[in-house]
Amino acid sequence: MNILLLGSGGREHALAWKIAGSPLTDKLFCAPGNAGIAREAECVALDIAEHAAVIAFCRAQNIDFVVVGPEAPLCAGIVDDLEIAGIKAFGPSKAAAQLEGSKGFTKDLCRANNIPTAAYERFTAPEPAKDYARQQGAPIVVKADGLAAGKGVVVAMTVDEATAAIDMMFGGELGAAGAEVVVEEFLEGEEASFFALCDGTTAIAFASAQDHKRVFDGDKGPNTGGMGAYSPAPIMTPDMTQRVMDEIIHPTMRAMAAMGAPFKGVLFAGLMITRDGPKLIEYNARFGDPETQVLMLRMMSDILPALLASRDGMLKNFDLRWYGDAALTVVMAANGYPGAYDKGSVIEGLDEAGAVEGVEIFHAGTKAEGGKILAIGGRVLNVTATAKTVAEAQALAYQAVDRIRWPGGFCRRDIGWRAVEREQAKG
Ligand code: AMP
Ligand code: GLY
Known about the structure:
The structure is a single chain. Helix 1 packs parallel to helix 10 and helix 7 (126-136) runs antiparallel to helix 8. This protein is globular. The protein is 32% helix and 28% strand. With 427 residues, the protein is an alpha+beta fold. Strands 12, 15, 18, 20, 23 and 24 form a six-stranded antiparallel sheet that branches. Strands 3-2-1-4-5 form a five-stranded parallel sheet, sandwiched between helices. The N and C termini lie far apart (47 Å). It folds into four domains: 2-91, Rossmann fold (3-Layer(aba) Sandwich); 119-185, ATP-grasp fold, A domain (Dna Ligase, domain 1, 2-Layer Sandwich); 196-312, D-amino Acid Aminotransferase, Chain A, domain 1, CATH 3.30.470; 326-426, Phosphoribosylglycinamide synthetase, C-terminal domain (Glycinamide Ribonucleotide Synthetase, Chain A, domain 4), CATH 3.90.600. Strand 7 (140-144) and strand 8 form a beta hairpin. The structure holds adenosine monophosphate and glycine. Glycine binds next to loops. Adenosine monophosphate binds next to strand 8, strand 9 and strand 17.
């Protein structure tokens, strides 16, 4: 088959690596891709916001299947447009992608279907939102309704912080995403990233994973897109996985189908595992980044039949198999991230780093120029390793990190700490 993958991050590099390894793949293209993806796929300079251009490319290159990585094209309806043009595509329709595109939509769906989530209210003006925040008291969480590239959530430790966040969002700093705001209860517990492959009716759980959202060691500093991940996540016991499927994923699938927007693709639930059980923090309508980097290394099954079965509504009786080994990925980011950062610094030592046994380096924001690899994004590299335990995978990943010569970048030094502590406690 001829496949077109859309996106340019570390998630897409991991997907490209896995799809390129499928015996079903004849030719893999990626738009726009990056310097690492270019090793697995032919990168094409398409603007993926231009659906007509993507469709024209698919026709010209006889593309059989399009795999969409990021949320923006999904929420803009690229799967609908491709399917109308007769091109098969993996991912949710625009209507189903509202689970990520509108926090208010998802919160209302939870309320109507008894899906456990933080108590909340929706607001279209600042004063009632502030009144509600004052009434509820801090800590409290303020969220922009729409897509805000990870910047739309403020966990306010004081009421003043909450009211400032409400003013910021309604003040237009996040554009249209902040025209509506959700104010919700602060949840206490441990977070986990939960992925289910869905075909509109059936949902199959992926292996578990945990992300590290904060920029600095010890989970300090501002939120980012994710500074590292590992799999499996010990907190997701088989019992907890079953509860998430029964209490959160399946009711969501039934509700989406009932409203005529069946969910196909990867449903990514950000969870808080609280004393009362799992609660939904938010949905994403796509693979996670950097969780996908560890999940692809652990996936034993060929991914393409699974993605095709999702698109075709054929996941019933489907089975996904995983390697028992653990995987861990360390994100290397440009100095300054998640704030303003420099572009164009040179990265060296990638071959030496990639030569560490069990290590795979996925590129996120890179570009090849004049025989050099340049950093051109915030999150730039994902140094990923597999081993028998999370602790061993962590050691290998940092061994590889230490071979990379890139003064313009940094990483956290404690990725995987929760799992490593649990492994040590077990002996
Ligand atoms: P989101 O973009 O909705 O995943 O939120 C980003 C991060 O904010 C989450 O990963 C959590 O760490 C935190 N967060 C969001 N909602 C809540 C909540 N209701 N209670 C506690 N933390 C939250
Ligand atoms: N790692 C979190 C995300 O992909 O949104």
